[in-house]
Amino acid sequence: MNGPQPTIAEPSRRTRKKERTRGQIYAAAMQLFLARGYDAVTIEEICDAADVARGTFFLHFPAKDALLGEYGRQALAELEALLDAHSGSAAEALDLALRFLAERAGRHVAVVRLVVRETMSSPTAIGDSTSAGRDLTDLFAAIIRRGQRAGELRRSVEPVLAGAVLASAYFAIAGEWARRTDSPDLALLVRQALDLILRGINRAPR
Q: Which residues contact 198 (CB under 8 A, 6 or more apart)?
C-alpha cells in the first residue's frame, strides 16, 4: 500500500546564502589563480575580488590551500544529487558516476590542472585530496553494496576495497590526464578502467 511520499526539505535561505558566498569566494579565487598563479595571489586579494570581508573568507575556508579542495567538494555534491535520481543497476550507476566526473573535468580543464599541480606541492591540500578520495570511495562502496544485495555483483568482494580501487583509478587517471596536454579523452580512459574492474566484481555467468 502506497502511503504519502516523504518530502525533501528545501535548503533554508541562510544555507542558500552561505553556499552562494562560498561559491563567490571560490570563483574569484580560481579566476585570480588562473590569471596570475596560485602562489602570487593573497587571501586579501581574493576577498577584494569576491567583495567579502577577511573574516567571511575564514568562515568558509580555513586557509588558502582549502580552496584547492573545493572543486572536488562541488563535484561530489553534484554527483550525489545525480545518483539520488538514478534508478538503474549498480554497474550503470558506477558508469554514470565516472562519466559525470570525467565530463565535468573536461569542462574545467584549466581548474583541474591547477588543482592537480598545486595539490601535489602542498601538504595541506594533499590532506584535502585524501579526504575527497575517502568520500568518493564511500560513495562507490555504497553503490557496490546495493549491487551485491541485488545479486548483480559478487558478494565475496569487500565493497570498500572495490570502492577504493575505483576511486584510486579515477584519481590516478585524472591526475595524469591533467598533467599532459596530449592526453586522450578522459571519459574513455575511466570507462576502460571501470570495464577492467567490473570484470572482477561482476557475478560469473551460470
A: 91, 94
C-alpha cell recorded at residue 198: 567490473
Which single residue is written with the C-alpha cell 580552496? Answer: 67
Residue 67 DSSP one-character state: G
C-alpha cell at 44: 586579501
User: ∠ CA(191), CA(132), CA(175), 5° rounding?
Assistant: 50
Give the separation between CA 92 and CA 187, rounded to whole angstroms.
15
The residue whose grid cell reads 587517471 is 173
Distance of CA 137 to the CA centre of its chain: 10
Mean pLDDT by 10 residues, the chain (206 residues): 51 84 96 95 97 97 92 92 93 93 90 86 58 86 95 92 91 85 79 82 62
